[in-house]
Description:
mainly alpha; 4 helices; HAD_sf; 0% strand; DNA polymerase, domain 1
Amino acid sequence: MQTIRLITFDVTNTLIKFKSSVGYEYCKIADLYGIKCNNENTVKAINSNFTILMKQLKKESPFYGVTEGINCNQWWHRLVVRTFSVSGIEMSPEMESKLKLTSTHL
């Protein structure tokens, strides 16, 4: 019998309510690293895409990447890159570097 090594809880909108949206907060942090996305359309796109992509990534890579040998920071970075990419932020090596800083900050 295996012992339980990790328990995670999703407390969003149950125990914790946020003052502002995911899109707003992500763009605010991204702006610190030179990613300009604080326009209404991008914030709305991030808001709608984030939840969809998180569910998708949880199916592809369960338990925040443990099953494929990545750590939770790498998993989260993958989610941030996908979210920004499908929300209209053009990807380049420079942008990927900025998003790495952004995801680490988040």
